[in-house]
Amino acid sequence: MRVIPPGIKNILDKWNIRGLVILSLVFQTSLIFLAPLRKRTSKKLLTVALWTAYLLADWTANYAVAQITKNQGKEPEPGDPPKNKKLLALWAPFLLLHLGGPDTITALALEDNALWARHLFGLVSQALAGVYAVVQSMENELWPPILLLFITGVIKYTERTRALYAACLDKFKDRMLKPPDTGPNYAKLMEEYASRKDSNLPTDIVLIKEPDKHERPPKLVRPDRKYLTNLEIVQYGFKFFNTFKGLVVDLIFSFRERDESRDFFKELQPEEALRIIESELGFLYESMYTKTAILQTTPGTLSRIIAFGSLLSSFFVFHRRPLKSVEFHGADVVITYTLFIIGIALELASIVMFLLSDWTFAVLRKLKDDPVEKKSYIDSFLDRLLAFRKPRWTEHKCEGNRTHEVLTTPFLLRRWSGAIYGFNFIGYCLKAKVSRIHRKKQRNVLSEFLCDSVVSMFDYVMRSIKMLAGWIKNVNRSTRIVIKKWSKKNLMIRCTVYPLYIVFFSVIPWIFGKLWGYIDRIFSVKSHLDQFRFVSSEPLTMNQWEFIFNELKHKSDFAETPEIAKKVSSARGEWALRDTKVVEVERLMRYVENVDYDQSLLLWHIATELCFQEEEEKKKVMNRSGESCDDREFSKIVSDYMMYLLIMQPKLMSEVAGIGTIRFRDTLAEAERFFKGRHSKNRRDMRGASKTVLSVCNDIEPMNVKGDRSKSVLFDASMLAKELQRLDESGGSDDGADGKWRVLSKVWVELLSYAASHCEATEHVAQLSRGGELLNFVWLLMAHFGLADQFQINKGDARAKLVVGFKQCSRKL
User: What span, in angstroms and rounded, lies between the C-alpha atoms of 11 and 768?
Assistant: First the structure.
């Protein structure tokens, strides 16, 4: 019995190789255009599409080569042209070319770079397989285009292997290490010292130090203009990328490099610093995930010229061959032309991307030694081209007729996602929609409305399913009790109805429940659904970045030594509280000093939300200054963002998360029980729920009532919120500013910077391939201001002088 009908089997036999070759070409085309988009967004749909194309591209090419090799050993089918196999042998180097992959993606994840040896083995094996396929069709008149295509394919595959090798973290670190420093010739100097001492000569060793850290190196002079040009932004980004890329592999830097960067960034406008860091992170992404770093070298450029020239030559040689339609099958000729034409078009597109990349501009035009030197025509032209990628800011009206500049760079011109995601604890407890504070563009209102409608509909369906499941569970429980009573009285029911009921209404639902549990554990279905339903998005605003920049800039003034820098970067709110000069600082200090970081995050997040909802209800903010409103909105956005990182991005917070998941679950369970008891859970009213939490008496601390077995911090956060509210009632800080929201905004910057500095560098780099995060920018900004652990070299070389009597014999140390 044949499973596949003969007609379909014949079609598959004739078109399997053709279909695989076309499919391989489709995957390559999709990769070259989809891959650059992943650094601009973190959308799951794009991630899934790119992941599928990346994995299937190699599999399809490998399988197609195997099929071509297998086909070469078969006898020709009746009706096939006699030389058709020789044309199929031409497709083998095309598939090797496809295995080389596009320039826009070499690694899907950072871990792929460590597999460079596997790709090297694949290069050798696939080249041998292609040669074997050609050898089987000996006396092939198409050997000139095949040979030229082999040159192109080998070069492309070699480029990919070299890119993976160069981006492997071990090799990346090896290339950055300086030559070994043996230090002074201690043995020789001590021999001379001992010989003179034995001769009873007055001898001593004097160590003359180099200028210490307080003697600054020459400053990196910025142009004497109000703003840097677009080209200068890229040039400075490339310069600092080459300096600070050692952060990825935990290398240390000298005080000279720290001072040069810190002095330069202190003179920048906040937007200029943002753009330079954008450019730096872009260079880091390209060096880790693309072929850009390889192609920008002289050997890489020459190899690309040779590869493209070989591809063009192969096409012309094949095109000039007469009688192709007679010697080969017509469909195969069309496919071959398609492979050539699309392959050449993709190479041209890659060349255009290569020429218009920031890396090309930075390498082509170096930074000028004299900042006041007049710009050349080339500089002006490149500056105009880079102006298209300049961040766009749009004024957005908020409550109180205030305006904020919101980042609204078009999607194809972005260097990162530009979004600040948020996850709200109370909103998640109540399954309520969290309203956005800012919207990117007015013309996106329709798309946002449609998206919100889809989310609302999905949320309604999920709640309906949950309610239905609860209703079925209650009915099932009641029915089971009734049937169990009947079965005790009636033997027939006990032998028939009761077993059927147990099987169909108890065992089968239990099996489906277990199956769903396994599926959820393997694929994290619930986590993805929660991310779709409860994660909000806010665009970055100019005032938010300015506040973060100015806070870190202020902290950098104190970080003169590595010890102080480490202390400042390790602050989790205590530095900010003391800096605000709040009278009740000691009452707030216990919420940051005596708690773990994950506990502090959850405490301050819930307290911020309680304060935010309280003022939403009273509308106090409408009568206050714009600055306090900025602090209020900033605190709310960063609070939700940090909770998003803790719950939805655990890898980024793995170094500081602690038992954050346990605390979150315990607090969630207590909040759900509390809201259910107060009939607030089904209302999805965040303001009313917040008011209910604040109404609970906190005269006695929760730990003194419940003990420390439960890790819930719900009512500890309520106590913190009340302490913060007292700041306004008591007049706030000494200078009369809005104490509560100013304190919260400063504390949240410190909590954010602590997470950024304690996140593994490899996780920062990994996040660049998923759209990037504000956390990555804060991490690099802290490094530029010297607020990092890597600046540990305080002293450089020195000179030791061997002093004998009144004569000095110097030896370099």
Answer: 45
Whether the per-residue pLDDT at 206 is higher than 90: the answer is no
Q: Which two tokens stand for residue 625?
A: 């200054």
Using CB atoms within 10 Å of the CB of residue 610, give its burial: 0 to 12 exposed, 13 to 18 middle, 19+ buried. buried
- Of the pLDDT bands very low, low, confident and very high (cuts 50, 70, 90), residue 210 is low
Residue among 747, 775, 778 at smallest CA distance from 553: 778
Write the CA distances from 632 to 554, 739, 740, integer angstroms. Answer: 21, 11, 9
**How do 791-793 and 253-254 pair as beta strands?**
parallel
Report the distance separating Cα 126 and Cα 120, nearest Å.
Answer: 10
The CA distance from 671 to 667, in Å, is: 6
Tokens describing residue 552: 């870190």
Q: Residue 813 — pLDDT band, cuts 50, 70, 90? A: very low
**Secondary structure of 265-301 in the HEC alphabet?**
HHCCCHHHHHHHHHHHHHHHHHHHHCCHHHHCCHHHH
Could you tell me which of 635, 578, 595, 574 has the C-alpha nearest to residue 716?
Answer: 595
Using alpha carbons, select from 188, 237, 225 the residue that is nearest to residue 389: 237
- Provide the β-strand partners of residue 541: 406
Residue 750 pLDDT class (50, 70, 90 cuts): very high
Residue 785 pLDDT level (bands cut at 50, 70, 90): very high
pLDDT tens string 494-543: 676 767 666 666 666 677 777 877 777 777 777 777 888 889 899 999 99
- Say how far apart CA 532 and CA 527 lie, in whole Å: 9
- The amino acid present at 45, given as its one-letter code, is L
CA distance 327 to 80: 10
